[in-house]
Amino acid sequence: MTDMPSREFEPIPAPRTGGLEPPGPYGAGPETAGPYGAGPETAGPYAEDPETAEAYAEGSQPGEPSLRAGLEAILLIVDEPVPEVTLAQILERPRHEVAAALRELAAEYSAQGRGFDLREIAGGWRFYTRDVCAPLVERFVRDGQQARLTQAALETLAVVAYRQPVSRARVSAIRGVNSDGVIRTLTLRGLIEEAGHDPEHQAVLYRTTGYFLERLGLNTVEELPDLALYLPDDVEGIEELQQ
């Protein structure tokens, strides 16, 4: 038998040690710091839109008014102080957040020297003109008394005169339109005034004033003429007005 030639085999190289492993998907480095890692490009979904970030920080959804804006909008149209719990229910926010926002707004208006301020009175919040502006407001109201009443004001004044004491809701129902603004104007001009509250619904009631009688040359409201003599038969609401 012929001897086969011996053959040398190269040794298998040992694994190299001390090398760097390939970086994983969240390894070191700004490019692989994860979807919300450090850096302006990856700081979260609201980093690039300051307006959206501010709304998000206040707890409102993007595109919806902030808590402060909602409070200002509601308080701008009320004519009676609104309790914090009512505002919290309407805005669907925790009461402590609403209370804090109201106090922040009040402090901000005072610091800026606005012509109005936000006050907590009678268990609720409402806008009021600032004390230092009282002479200007009085001058405006006094000068405005020289102007003729609008048709809406005359209608509202007639309803109050013939149905007093009457609530704003009742006046609006008889006229068929919202009369809150007109009632406010008549009150500022001294022709009507508050006359307590409805015992059933606690709504504010209104009546005519002594100034109203003076302007019409009457001693009492009983001297008011019969309204039906001056209106056509088909006027809507005349039955309610005379009841």
Describe this structure in words.
The chain is of the alpha+beta class and 243 residues long. Among the domains are: 67 residues, Winged helix-like DNA-binding domain superfamily/Winged helix DNA-binding domain (Arc Repressor Mutant, subunit A); 98 residues, Winged helix-like DNA-binding domain superfamily/Winged helix DNA-binding domain (Arc Repressor Mutant, subunit A), CATH 1.10.10.10. It has ten helices and five strands. The strands form two sheets. A three-stranded antiparallel sheet has the order 3-5-4. About 17% of the residues have low confidence.
Keywords:
globular; single chain; Arc Repressor Mutant, subunit A; alpha+beta; 5 strands; 243 residues; two-stranded antiparallel sheet; 10 helices; 3-stranded antiparallel β-sheet; 40% helix
What is the topology?
Blueprint: H1 50-57, H2 67-77, H3 84-91, H4 95-112, E1 116-121, E2 124-129, H5 134-144, H6 151-163, E3 166-167, H7 168-175, H8 180-188, E4 192-197, E5 204-208, H9 210-216, H10 238-242
Antiparallel strand pairs: 1-2, 3-5, 4-5
Helix pairs in contact: 3-4, 6-7, 6-8
The beta-strand count equals 5
Shape: globular
What is the helix tally?
A: 10
**Terminal-residue CA separation:** 140 Å
Question: How would you write the strand order of the largest sheet?
Answer: 3-5-4
Oligomer: single chain
Q: Please compute the radius of gyration using only Cα atoms.
A: 37 Å
Percentage of residues in strands: 5-15%
Q: In terms of structural class, how would the helical and strand content be classed? A: alpha+beta
Question: Per CATH, what is the topology of the domain at 145-242?
Answer: Arc Repressor Mutant, subunit A
List the helices and strands in order: HHHHEEHHEHHEEHH
What is the class of the domain at 145-242 in the CATH system? Mainly Alpha
CATH 4th-level superfamily of the domain at 145-242: Winged helix-like DNA-binding domain superfamily/Winged helix DNA-binding domain
Weakly predicted, low-confidence segments: 17-57
Overall pLDDT metric: 76
